[in-house]
Every structure is written in C-alpha cells, then in structure tokens.
Amino acid sequence: MTDQTTPAEPASFAARIRRRLRSLEPIHVALLGLLAIPGHLFDSLAALQVFWVFFLALLWPLVAPLVELALGRAADAEEAVGPTDWIETGDWRTYAAWYLMLPLTILNPLVLAQDTMQFLGAAVAYARHRGSMPAAGSYEQRRSYRLPFDGRWTVVNGSYDRDYSHSWFPVNQRYAYDFVITDADGRTSPEGSGSRVESSYCYDEPVLAPADGAVIDVCDSAFESSRGGGLSHLLKRDIRGNYVVIQHAPDEYSCLAHLVPGSVGVEPGDRVTRGQRIGRCGHTGNSSDPHLHFQLQDHPDFEIAAGLPVAFDDVDAEWPGAEAPIDDPSTRNDADGARTFVTAGQRVAHVDRDGDASSRTRDITDAASEAHDAGSGGATDRRRAGIEFLQRVAFGACVGGVVTYFVSIVASWLVVAEVLAAGAALGVAYRLGLSLRRGDGYVRRPGSIGTVVGAGLVATVVAWYGTNGFAIGVGLLALGASTFLAGFVVFLVLGEYDGRRLRASFADAVVRA
Length: 513
Hints:
Keywords: Membrane, Transmembrane, Transmembrane helix
Structural class: alpha+beta
Domain M23ase beta-sheet core: 204-298
GO molecular function: metalloendopeptidase activity
Transmembrane segments: 26-42, 48-67, 389-407, 413-434, 446-465, 471-494
C-alpha cells in the first residue's frame, strides 16, 4: 500500500506555472480550428479562415518538454518539485536528438497514418462510452492485474491523474504507463556508459503477462535502433514497435510495447498465465530510450480503443522525490486483496502473495482461451485471420491516402502513383525477406501483407485517376483525404465486428466455466 501525502503548494512562480502547463489540453484549443472549414466552403464566411491558426496548438507537445525543462531549472531547489524531477531523463543532447528525429518520424507515412487514426479513433471511443470515459475513481476493472515485471522499476511517465498522465488525448493512451529501471541517483544507465541500448538497466529485462488471458495480436519484426538518447529507428512500421496484446476479460486487453526484436515468445491464440514471460523490454517503435509501455484498453485495436485505468495488486511503492500534488483515488480492497494505482515518479515492485493469482481467475481465462482455440471467435480461426487481413488492407489504404494527400501538394499524380508503387514493392521485398528468416524466431503480425495490398490498391486508383479521372472534378488532395477516410471506416467497421466476436466468445466461455 502506498503511503501518500500531498505536499504544500509550491511557492515559486516557476513551480506554479509548471503545474498549470501540465493541465493544459491543446486538443481543446485545436478544435477551434474546425471553425475555419465553413470559410473554405462559403465565400460569405471567408473571414472564418483565420481560425486555422488554432491548429497550431497541436504543436504544443513539441514545445512542452523545453518549457518544462526551463521552468524546472528556474525553480528553487529547496521548494517542492515535480514527482519525476529526481529521474535523470537526459541532457540537452537527448532533447536535440529527439527534435531532430521528429521530421523524419512525421514524414513516415505509416506513423502519420496511425497517429491520425488515433485522433479519429478518440471520437469512436467517446461514442462507445456515450461521452463518459472510464475514470480511476469509478471504473471497476474485471480482472486482478500485477505489474508486468519483477524487481523494482520506476514509473517515468503515466498516472491515473490527468496532470501526470501519459497523454490525456488521444484517449487510447490516457492511462498508459512507461516503466524504466533507475539507480538511486535516478539514472537509467550507469554514468558515462553512453547511449547504446545495452547500457540501459531495463534493456532486455523480462516482460511478464499481467494476468491470465489469450494472446490476440503480436508483432515481433520491428526494427530497433542500437542507440537511445532521443534516437529511434527511422523505419518504423508501428508506433508500438514490437508488442503483445492479451485479452483478459470481454472488454479488457493489455498492450505491452517496445519489445526487443525476436524476444516475443507467444503467438496469437496462445494462452498465457499471470507472470509468464512474453518478451523482453526494448527500444522499438516511438521510443527515445529503452522502456516498457503498458496500457489497459477496452478494444483489441489500439487505434480505436479507449484507455482504462488499472489498479495493480500487491504493489510496494516508494517516492524517491517529491510526491505528486494529485487527488488519490485511494487504495482499493476487494476479494483479491489490495489494489494500488501507481503514478509518475514512484519506484514500484510486485510483491508475490498466495501464489500470485486466484484459481478462479485462471480457470475463467483458461476456459475463454480454449474457446478461442476452438475457433469460436479467437485469434487463430480462419474468420479472424480474414478480418486481420482486411483490416491491414484498410490500414494500407489509409497510408496510401496520406501519401496521396501530401505528395500531391508538390508533385503530379504520376509521381504519387510511382511513390505508392515503390512503397508496395519494398513492402513485398521486406515480407519475403522475413519469410526467409522464419527460423530466427520472428513472430509475424497476422495479415501484415495486407498493408502492402492496400497501398497497391491506392496506387492503382491514383493511376486510373491520372489517366481517366480528371473529368470527375475531384482534386488529388480530395482523393487522398477520401481514400484515408474510406480506409479508416472499413478498419473501424471490421474492428468493431471483431471486438464484438471476441467479447461474445469470452463471455460464453465464462458462463461454461
């Protein structure tokens, strides 16, 4: 149980501003930019075009780290500081490397498409929850979860409290956590060891299943940069890098991301038990340094899921630095024992108790997993394999739409078609290369070839448009946007259907258990 008290209100101006900035939600300001749309549709409302300036608020996450760093240095050392200030997150070189990576990351159409889908998926999540998103003080989780590692780790990012959350918007990562291992001085690697990933204390450490369940999605073939310190691999195919998604209850899925390539030891359809090793902590995807990303979500698809607050059981937590000035939803006690919400700045460890899991929970999740294996909606049946493939085709269409939209700003339709065709060809070559390395232990993402197919279809559409389509009166920009939206709608419809099937099969298994 965490002994947590609220410190006195920081006295300095810099400290007060830091707290205010943490609660700033740029998306609320950016939404005012939508008022500019009528200005482009109706000449009489042209004055509204000035509202486009509000979209600049979306750049705030890029500026916030520098502002936080400056204000932190301006605060008096004797005053209360932020909960994570004791953690050494890097010097100016780390920030410089991170900013240098941003343009290259943004230009990656796979990442840009996925990021855009996250924002659209937030609206879907709000609709799913009828406008009232799950909250730490009221959400009743269906399963008992342990921390996804052994030993003592540090919560470097994430909280049940909005001001210290991983990212309050988009909502799929609202209650996500980033875990690292630090020493007593707050360093994530030995002093003077450099930025190589192997020097990080958490790199290659085992990652464990937080509860019993059935594996429904896996990626184990993402590239990994050999260095951290703000750097990540240029050829990202998914912002999660290598990851595992596990279904634990009808509407509760855990996602464990940024794993080491080739370290994932499970495949879709496998049953896992609480505490079982599923991979190793790495530096793949959108990662500035090796760390473990963990989140609980209400849907199997990351892009359209809503993040769920998770209280871990049997947690030993300590505050090396200042405690966070947050409202504590309190430690919960139920039939499975004490459950604790953890937050940024804490060092946490799992304390084994009574075999680490109740037999009832294990019986239920095993029964559900057996139903999956039997083909009643699980990850390995042919119907779900088909859904996975079609979803990846839809995602490929979204990627093609992004490429069409942005490349057409500076080039002709022919260049757009050539870029898409070249990307599809590289994708095929990459998949063939992985097929030749099957013996290396890589677990391929189900239906991943569908992304290549989707991008290839968009290349065909653009080529047809260039030779025959000008008469329809639609520009390339509109064609790209329409293709993206069409791909997202198909992805959404298939995802919701798949989610309902998984939910129904899990519920049926629980009843039979």
